[in-house]
Amino acid sequence: MANYGGLSIPTIPIPGDVLLTGRNTAYKNWICTSVIDSAVGTFTYSGQSVNVGTSPIEFLMNVPLLGGMDSSQTFFCYDCTCNAAMTGLTSAADSIYYSGGTASFAPTFIGGGNLNS
């Protein structure tokens, strides 16, 4: 599962028929990252026919450009309005910084009120 930023992890499974109904209203600002079908089927994206089967296919899809799908397809999507609260831990007191998975030195700020070294 790739992290596309924003609220892309975790994605929310949405049936194709529900997504199609709300693509220009409730889901107009959503992005889908993958789709899977319970059998073998097609949907359209930006006017192009896309075949999908029981193995998921992954690519970024703007919901308003989706069409011609049914309830046998499940899309994995996230809200991209950026109106949700940020999650995770943040702290100005963190003193350990990581680079490539290993601890590294804290950055040095020069000037202003941040005379740390």
Descriptive overview:
This protein has 117 residues and is mainly β. The protein has a domain at 12-79. Helix content is 5%, strand content 37%. The protein has one helix and nine strands, in the order E-H-E-E-E-E-E-E-E-E. The chain has one helix spanning 16-21; strands at 12-15, 30-37, 41-45, 48-52, 57-62, 66-67, 73-79, 97-99, 102-104. It has a four-stranded antiparallel beta sheet. The protein has a three-stranded antiparallel beta sheet with strand order 4-3-6, with no helix packed on it. The protein has a two-stranded antiparallel ribbon with strand order 8-9. Strand 3 and strand 4 form a beta hairpin. The longest helix is centred in the N-terminal third of the chain and has 6 residues, at 16-21. The radius of gyration is 20 Å and the shape is globular. The two termini are 38 Å apart.
Give a short overview:
The protein is mainly beta. It is built from one helix and nine strands. The chain has a domain at about 10-80.
Record keyword descriptors for this entry.
37% strand, mainly beta, 1 helix, single chain, 117 residues, 4-stranded antiparallel β-sheet, 3-stranded antiparallel β-sheet
Number of strands: 9
Computed over alpha carbons, the radius of gyration is 20 Å
Helix-strand category: mainly beta
Spatial order of strands in the largest sheet: 1-7-2-5
What amount of the residues lies in strands? 35-45%
Global geometry: globular
H/I helix tally: 1
Order of helices and strands: EHEEEEEEEE
Ends: how far apart? 38 Å
Oligomer: single chain
Identify low-pLDDT runs: none
Q: Sketch the major β-sheet.
A: 4 strands, antiparallel
Helix content: under 10%
Estimate the mean pLDDT confidence: 77
